[in-house]
Amino acid sequence: MFKVLSKVFLVVAFFGASLSWSQDDEGARNAVISMVDAFRTEIVEDKEILAQDPKLLEERVNAILEKIINFDDFSKKVMGKYYRRASPEQRVRFASVTKDTLLQTYGSSLLELDADRINVLPLGPQGRGRETKVDVDFQMESGGLLNITFHMQDTKEGDWVLSNIVINNINFGQTFRKQFAVMMEQNKNDIESAIGAWQKSLAKKT
After folding, report:
1. DSSP state of 158
2. Which residues form a coiled coil (predicted)?
3. Candidate CATH numbers 3.20.20.80, 3.30.70.100, 3.10.450.710, 3.30.450.40; the one for domain 2-203
């Protein structure tokens, strides 16, 4: 099950808190609805075609996610305190490795969803920070149910972007950040070696 969860979304980083929600939060829910609708029409409904064409699948997933995910910002959060130590070239490489691998992983897992059984739930209690949590239930064709909480954050431009994801209570933002920190320790704080280990680790989930 954890392998399936890891394949489903594998993106981004961090935090949320207590109560209350405003009408403005509906913008976050609407952004998630648009993304989910795109998954349904552009990916799941064409699964038979896309299963035979990995390159086309990756292109379609990228077209959807680039509208709602800033991979450079995601990579910065995953690298955590090590980001400042990385050279500009290493930052770019880390972001590229993360994006390319996650697109491949994410796309293959989307083909396992039931297009007719994806439900964006009404907003629940929210935190006082900038994030809004949007819950979506995804039914797998195999019969399993995934509850995914999308943590959305509004930008200065008024758009909503994905800042973290929690799948069946597993916080992937925190998990990824801890995983990269462990890789830094295992590679004697050598960023170049840690990036290589990070690439191999993500590739294992495809």
Report:
1. S
2. none
3. 3.10.450.710
